[in-house]
């Protein structure tokens, strides 16, 4: 439903994106992750036609954003960067004006969307009196009024309290269930991404470092917590057999390497194995492993307790 291919973009000679390609399937909730400056907002800006790529292209459905901007964006609703409203006007008048920029204002449809985002009682009040959460709901209403097939969200839960974050999460999940909505959003709240997303794309310094399901991300290199003595003998043995030492007392094994075989080999080599247990890593753990700058600290051997 949404695809980007070979995106390159530099600002002032500094690369922001370098050959980024990924796709979002129809009806999928897809997370776009990365540190500040990784290229997330630049990517969304290119998809929305607000940023011109140096190379590459974005498609909504089968329509190129760069070649047929208006037609491509007829299928898209978006909250991009900080939503701007007329503070001195009510929420309803804001929606009426903003909808008029891109098409016909349908009062009945707008009333239904306003009710859906929970703003019916406050929609006639001035936006200047709205809380941050109410502004985000108004922005969401604006994005949904055109009945888009794709929803693009730039840090939609930023600044919301836990109740607001849960409301947003439930809203998006219900929206996908009811309408088959395709959603691409970037967020730094990894716990929310883990609960919402079918797949994720991770950027680091403008380069794509992972695209796939969360399960595939976990299965790429299962991690085990180990206690092995003597470590000076165990560490080189593990590395020689395909294991990767990722931290004190933790190793990663290739998916095709059975831990039972590794344990048997360790014991057969005279190494005492007192712990060898799988560790369930959260999205935060996986994200930090992928995006972290290599450090000597990560290679420190595990020193068994006396």
UniProtKB/TrEMBL annotation:
Q: Which InterPro entries match?
A: AAA+_ATPase, ABC_transporter-like_ATP-bd, ABC_transporter-like_CS, P-loop_NTPase
- What GO annotations for molecular function exist for this entry? ATP binding
The UniProt entry, under Pfam families, shows: ABC_tran
Domain ABC transporter as annotated: residue spans: 2-230
Q: Name the domain of life.
A: Bacteria
Family per record: Belongs to the ABC transporter superfamily.
Q: Which PANTHER family match?
A: ABC TRANSPORTER, ATP-BINDING PROTEIN
> What is this protein's record name?
ABC transporter ATP-binding protein
């Amino acid at each position: 439903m949404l695809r980007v291919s070979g995106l390159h973009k530099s600002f002032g000679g500094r690369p922001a994106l370098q050959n980024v390609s990924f796709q979002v399937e129809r009806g999928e909730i897809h997370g776009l992750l990365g540190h500040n400056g990784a290229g997330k907002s630049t990517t969304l800006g290119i998809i929305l036609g607000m940023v011109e790529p140096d190379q590459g292209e974005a498609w909504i459905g089968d329509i190129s954003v760069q070649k047929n901007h208006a037609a491509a964006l007829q299928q898209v609703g978006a909250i991009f960067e900080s939503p701007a409203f007329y503070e001195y006007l009510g929420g309803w008048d804001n929606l009426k004006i903003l909808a008029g920029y891109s098409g016909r204002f349908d009062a009945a449809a707008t009333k239904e969307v306003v009710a859906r985002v929970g703003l019916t009682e406050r929609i006639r009040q001035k936006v200047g009196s709205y809380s941050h959460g109410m502004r985000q709901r108004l922005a969401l209403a604006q994005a949904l009024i055109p009945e888009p097939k794709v929803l693009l969200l730039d840090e939609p839960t930023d600044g919301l309290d836990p109740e607001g974050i849960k409301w947003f999460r439930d809203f998006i999940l219900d929206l996908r269930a009811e309408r088959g909505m395709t959603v691409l959003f970037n967020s730094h709240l990894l716990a929310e991404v883990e609960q919402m997303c079918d797949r994720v794309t991770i950027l680091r310094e403008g380069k794509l470092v992972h695209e796939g399901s969360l399960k595939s991300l976990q299965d790429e290199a299962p991690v085990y917590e180990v206690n092995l003595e003597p470590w000076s003998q165990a560490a080189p043995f593990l590395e020689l057999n395909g294991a990767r030492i990722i931290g004190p007392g933790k190793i990663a094994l290739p998916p095709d390497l059975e831990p039972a075989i590794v344990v048997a080999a360790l014991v057969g080599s005279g190494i005492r194995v007192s712990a060898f247990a799988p560790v369930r890593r959260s999205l935060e753990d996986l994200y930090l492993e992928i995006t972290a700058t290599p450090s000597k600290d990560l290679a420190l051997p595990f020193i068994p307790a006396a």
